[in-house]
Amino acid sequence: MARKKGAKTPASAKRRLAASSAILVSTTLLLLGPFVSLAHAQTQMVTASPGYINLGMSTSISVTAPAAGQYTVVVAKPNGASASLPFTFASAGQTQNATFGNATSGFGSAVSSVGTYNVFVEQGSQVVGTTSFYATDKLVVTMDMVNGGDCTYVGGVTRGEKMFPRFSVSYASNGQPLSNDTAGISVSFTAPNSAVATAAWDSGAHLFVGRVLPNWNYTSVGAWSPTANVTTAAGNVGTFVYSGSPFQITPAQLSTAIQLVDAKTGQVVTSVYSGENLTIKATITYPTNAEPVTGFVGPLDTATRGGVVSAQVGYGYYNDSALTFGGGAKSPGTLIATIPMAYTGANGTWAGSYVAGTLPTLPAGELFQVVIASHDSASPPNTGLGSLSVGPSLGAPGASSSSSTTTSAPSTSTLTTTVSQVTQTVPTVAYAGMVILLALGLIIGLVLRMRR
């Protein structure tokens, strides 16, 4: 009398003995293999294909009858439960298949436990065949990182650039990739601020993609090594821990444009003279990129972004890190003046007044430098640094002195050499002597021709 589907079998001890016997026979054949040549290949009575699956998958159990009759196929789960299904064969060699892993067909049972599933073929109280398959809950997770716009692989970004961690998820059993069609799938990752964020399915990239959007005042800058967790409704799980060189998020470098304007004429100047009244103008903005973070690009102002700007005039070596002129005896530099800058109220333009005073004589090859340093109120701040080179003027334009000509920097000097012609008066006596010598030469020439 055949057992009902899903009923537990009372012959568990016999199944364990049968499984042990099958392993012993298989081991013996492997040991004898090098020495015994089998005349015919052995046909396994029962197989499970595939033999390695993930939770929620199914496998096909195939039974080849050794003889006509009724059999019962029992699948013992790793958790101790079992499911069974009757098979009836009309003749020896007949094959029948049934699916294990579908709750509504075949054995009517799902693969929900990790471990080995033992399969037994019973006839009456005897176990006549056995096999097994294995189920895992492991998922394989990999990751790459691209920026916004052109989707270039990156090792880090500055504020204002978009960052997309992309995750690929596949089954450990067969390598098949998972998608948003996978029941109950969830992909999460740790953001730079350690919060848990969700990676959504991208149908174009066929990956689960997260979003990191550091705006101008984003505080979680520095090194970032993300982790990820993946789960499915079937109970499969995957973890990812990034182990490469950490990704870096850094403050942005502000863009700086500088102009030097004569306060009297309103004209842009490229050189300065002692006593000149000047206005230093600096337009400072946040840099753009192929796909900037929304709200990032704009002017550096005081009300929204808490801008602070200063100007320095000097010459020689400028230390970008210390924001000072001079780098010791080997790199001399001199600060002439520091000028406070105020926001004009529009377009990121800042202005400061500077009266040149008595300017020093520059060393050979040097120019005056106007250096603009800026930062905002972010923590840590975004910073800007720009400089403008100007040469010295010899005097104010319009002065009566010939030295009032303004020279542009850098100036080019041209050395011109003038060749003068010298005229000298020849005395009359010298002319008479020359005439006598010429006459003698003519006489001697005639005599020589007559002799020839």
Describe this structure in words.
This protein has 452 residues and is mainly β. 10% of the residues lie in helices and 39% in strands. It contains two helices and 30 strands. The protein has helices spanning 12-32, 428-451; strands spanning 46-49, 52-54, 59-64, 69-76, 82-89, 95-100, 115-123, 126-136, 139-147, 156-158, 163-171, 186-190, 196-198, 200-202, 207-209, 222-224, 227-231, 237-241, 247-250, 253-262, 271-272, 277-285, 308-316, 318-319, 324-325, 333-340, 342-343, 349-355, 368-375, 383-392. Strands 20, 21, 22, 23, 26, 27, 28, 29 and 30 form a nine-stranded mixed beta sheet that branches. Strands 2-8-7-4-5 form a five-stranded mixed beta sheet. It has a four-stranded antiparallel beta sheet with strand order 9-11-15-14, with no helix packed on it. A hairpin with a 4-residue loop joins β14 (200-202) and β15 (207-209). The longest helix has 24 residues, at 428-451. The radius of gyration is 47 Å and the shape is rod-shaped.
